[in-house]
Amino acid sequence: MTEPLDIQPLTKAAFAPFGEVIEADPATMRYINNGTTERFHALAAADVVGEGGRVIINLFRGQPRDFPYQVGMMERHPLGSQSFSPISGRPFLVVVSMDEGGKPGRPQVFLARADQGVNYGRNVWHHPLMSLGAVCDFLVVDRDGPGNNLEEYVFDTPFLISEPIS
Ligand SMILES: NC(=O)N[C@@H](O)C(=O)O
Ligand code: NI
């Protein structure tokens, strides 16, 4: 029996245990370029460890997920953080779990607006990219380099996400 998961709006406070929300937070804004540009400063930081690791910037083109969707697995990157910033003008789903003795706990599902991104902290359990409604592009900042930077966990019983938006 798959357990249904609720979906909550993505907010900085709710997401804090998992990482940062990348959004135009007025508290971070400073004017630059002679007042012609608003800089929303240091919303998140890339965290890369391990010999030879480096921060890279990628483009992910995600196929839309079909719903209802079964969350059967989670993953994490022990050597680096990973951020996703949508650039196709659509919302997306963010699915994360607290670590419980080396395994992901019950997933929490957030609906990210089209103007919100996330930075998963290093070694934070998350589900791979979940685009909604159309093929969507994301700017992704994460780690390249030697070492195993992917740990996956398959749930004994999957969790269910019903239709996220009308
Ligand atoms: N595999 C890969 O680069 N992507 C995943 O890490 C993901 O979180 O989507
Ligand atoms: Ni990942």
TrEMBL record:
What Pfam families does the record point to?
Ureidogly_lyase (PF04115)
Q: Which GO terms describe its molecular function?
A: ureidoglycolate hydrolase activity; ureidoglycolate lyase activity
Coiled coil (UniProt feature): none
Q: What top-tier enzyme class does this entry carry?
A: lyase
Q: What is its EC number?
A: 4.3.2.3
Q: Reaction catalysed by this chain?
A: (S)-ureidoglycolate = urea + glyoxylate
Q: Tell me the pathway.
A: Nitrogen metabolism; (S)-allantoin degradation
| Swiss-Prot/TrEMBL cofactor(s) | Ni(2+)
Which keywords label this protein? Lyase, Purine metabolism
State the Gene3D superfamilies in the record. Answer: Ureidoglycolate hydrolase
The alphabetized list of GO BP terms reads:
allantoin catabolic process; purine nucleobase catabolic process
Judging by the UniProt lineage, the source's domain of life is: Bacteria
InterPro entries for this protein: RmlC_Cupin_sf, UAH_cupin, Ureidogly_lyase, Ureidogly_lyase_bac, Ureidoglycolate_lyase_dom_sf
Quaternary data: Homodimer.
Similarity-based family: Belongs to the ureidoglycolate lyase family.
Q: What does this protein do?
A: Catalyzes the catabolism of the allantoin degradation intermediate (S)-ureidoglycolate, generating urea and glyoxylate. Involved in the utilization of allantoin as nitrogen source.
Name the UniProt record assigns to this protein: Ureidoglycolate lyase
Q: Which organism is it from?
A: Rhizobium metallidurans
Provide the organism lineage as a comma list.
Bacteria, Pseudomonadati, Pseudomonadota, Alphaproteobacteria, Hyphomicrobiales
